[in-house]
Protein: Beta-galactosidase
Organism: Paenibacillus harenae
Amino acid sequence: MKMGVDYYPEHWDRSMWEQDAKLMRETGVSLIRVAEFAWSRLEPEEGRYEFGWLDDAIDVFYKYGIQVVIGTPSCTPPNWLVERFPDVLPRDAMLNPRYPGIRGHRCYNSPSMRFFSTKIVEKLASHYASHPAVIGWQIDNEFSLNECHCENCNNRFRDWLSKKYGTLEALNQDWGTVVWSGEYSSWEQITTPFGGTKFRNPSFLLDWKWFETDSVVEFQQSQLSILRKYCPDHFVTHNIWSYPMSLDYYKLCEDLDFASLDYYPGTSPEKSVSGGYNGALTLDLTRGIKRQNFWIMETISGPPGCWFPMWRTPQPGFIRAFAWQCIARGADTLVHFRWRSAPFGAEQFWHGLIDHSNVPGRRFEEYRMLCDEVNRLSPVLAGSEVLGEAAVLHSHDLYNALEIQPQAEGMNYFDNLKLYHRALTKSGILTDVVNTTDDLDKYRLIVAPSLYLLDEKLADKLENCVKNGATLILTNRTGVKNMSNVCWIQPLPGLLAEAAGVTVGEYDPVGNDVHTIRMLDGKTYSCSQWCDILEPAGAETVAWYEDDFYAGKPAVTVHSYGKGKVYYMGIVAEESFYLNLFGKAAEEAGLTRFTGLPEGVQISIRRKGNSKYLFLLNLTQKQQTVELKGTYRSLLQEMSVGPDVILDPYAVEIVELDEQF
C-alpha cells in the first residue's frame, strides 16, 4: 500500500521541488502522479519535445525515494495542435466546435488527435521506460462520452453499424425503423443524432452509446499498446470519474492492469451521512469493474471549488475517515489531489493539502497522521481483498436505456440502485456491486435492480443461481426489452416469469404520487414511482396494496424455485422496507450480518489468507457506539477493544477477527 499526491512540477519554481520532495518524504508520501495536463510543456511546438524539465523533477523526487506515475497528456491538446488541425475538436449536435480553454476538448475519432497523441505517448514511453523512479502510467484523464458529431465520427459510426449488422435490412429490422417512416435505403442516410436525441429511435440511441464507448476504448487502446511495447514492466491504469456514467467502465478497464478512481466525498455536514453511503456505492462499483482491488488516483484534500462555489472545508477527521473508507472497500493506494493549491488556472480553489499560504496547517497534519497509519499497517493489509457475500447487479447498458426512455416521474435507475445498496450497507451485509455479465455463482443473495434489458443468457444465469440455492431479488421494470432496446411481446417479467412465479397483470407509473403497501406482519410502508399489479403463478404474496383501484392486489411476492427463492418487488418503497426485506433475506440465506449499526457507521472486511480485518468507520459528526460480539485486537491502537467500541466523530477502528468469526 502506498500514499501519494498529485503534483505538477511545471506549476512551481524549480527551487520548490526539492523542498516539496523532502517534506513529502518526511510526511510518508512515497508516490506522485505527474504530467497528465502538461502537453504544451512536453511538446511546445509540433515535433519539438522538451522533456528536460520533467527529467529534472523526477530525478529530484527519486533522490528522496518517491516513485512516479506519469499521466499521458491527451486530455489537453495544446493550442498549436488545435490551430493547425481543427479536426481534433469535437462538434456538438448542431455541428458547433467545442473550443479549447478547458480540458477534454478532443474528438476520440479525429485522425489528427490519434496521430499526435500516440506520437507523444511513444516519445514519453521510450524516454521513461528505464527510469528507476517511474513505475506506471495513467492514460489520459477522466474519460467520458464526448458525443461528437463531426464527419469522422459519422463515418466511423456508419462503419461500426455495418460491421455489427452486416446489411441495412438487418439494421432496419432490429431497430424497427418502420415506425415513423424511418427506414434506411443507404448507409449514407445514417448519421449521428444531429440536433439532439428527443423523439429518436431508442434502439438507434443505444447503439450510439455503444459506439461512443467503443470509440473511447479504441482511443485508449492506441496508447495502451504503445505503453505495453516500451514499458512491459510498468502498470497501466486510467482514472475514472465517479458514477453514474454513460461510458461503459467495464469495457474501458478490461485491458488495464487495475481500475483507478477519482473520489471526492461531499463535505457538507448535513450531507455527510448520505454522502458516505453514496461513496460506499461508488467504491464498491469501482472494485467490481475488474473484481479486484483498485487505486484512488485523486481524492479530497480541502474544499473543492472552481467552476462552482467552494464546498465546506473538511471537518477534523474527515480526510482521514474517508481515506480509510477507500481502503476498507478495496483501495490499495491513495493519491490525494493535490499537494498544494494552485495559484493560477481554473482550479485555483480546488484546494490541496497545503493552502496558498504555503504553510502546512490542520488538514496537512491530519494527512501526516493518515500516512503514518497506512504505512505502518501496509505490511499487514497488503495483499488482502474485500469480502463480499451479497451482490447488487449493475449495468451501463441499463442506465443508458433508462436514460433514453425515462419510465416515470422521479424514477431513476441509479438513484434506485443507491437505495438498495444503502439498505444493504445499513443492514451490515457485506456486498459487492458487479456487472450483470459477471459470474455470480459465489453469491447467496443477489439484488437485480430493473433488468429492463434482458436476454436469455442473463435470465438462464440467474435461474441457475436460484436453482443452486441463491436468493434473487427482482424489481419492477424487469424483462421489458431485449438487448437491442426492443420490447418483448410477452407478460412481464418476461424471461424470468417462471422463476419469479408471477406475472405483471398491469402497471401504474405513479411517479411522485405516494401509495401504501401492507406486509404479512401488518406493517405498512409508503411507495412511489411505480406500481406493478401482480398475478401470482406459484409465488406467495409478501405485501399488498392498500389503496387505489388495485387495493388488495399483490405488490411483492416470493417464489421457491429449485433450492433457492425469487422475490419480486413491483414497487419502489421507502428505505425501511428494504432494511426489513433484505435483512430477512440475508438471514434466510445464512449471510454474515452486523446488526444494529448506527446511522452513518459502515463496516467492511478485508481478508488475507485465514486472517480477516474488520473496518469500523463513523462517517458522521457525532459520537457513535458499535457493539461487537467479543474483544479483538485493534490494529490502529495496538490494544484490545470491545465488546463496545466508542467511535468519536469521523473515527476509524480496524480489528483483527478470530477464525471463528
